[in-house]
Amino acid sequence: MKKVSTFHGEDSLFQSLYAKALEFPTAVALIAANLVPLFGVLFLDWSLFPILFIFWLESVVIGCFNCLKLLFKCTFKSFSLMLFFVVHYGFFTAIHLKAIFELFSPDRVAYLSLLPPAALMTQQIILVWPAFLVFVLSHGISFVYNFIGKQEFLRMDPEMQMIAPYKRVAIMQVTIIGGAWVIQFLGAPVLALVLLISLKIAIDAGAHRSEHLGFI
User: What residue spans define the domains of the chain?
Assistant: First the structure.
């Protein structure tokens, strides 16, 4: 009897988790996307710099979907804010990219231009393209499911939407770069990289819930 009770208890737990997954599919997709860098660390020997570069690419993806959200509003104000966002956020992400290349790349690459040489960018993108692709899919699913499907666009304030990515990206990147300094000091052990990615997942889950709390 005890075995049957335990089985039913486990079955109930799985059913509960499955129900949560159906209720929050975009959160599941976001967590799943973060597991790709984790796979890279554990099985593909990805070091600290590729992980930081992946998270930078995600901030670009977040910015692109924010532009789509502003364009979706189809007003002169939202279009003007989108143009300002492209310039300002573009500069913001370029400075961030320059910092991670000069501080964390294996060769401490320094360059005078705002963006790194195309050859270096191409090399890194080829290395981490699977992670980049899944982050595009994850944020694309959220855009379709939450913003369009749950009609978040009806309650969207263009000015608030324009600044929305800054808070999420700033918290994420300050935390991750702080952790990266510690990992670099320790010699980038695998366990430390796993903990860094786990921290990123926790930050993403919290930000996702906060962003969509009123709509989910």
Answer: 26-212
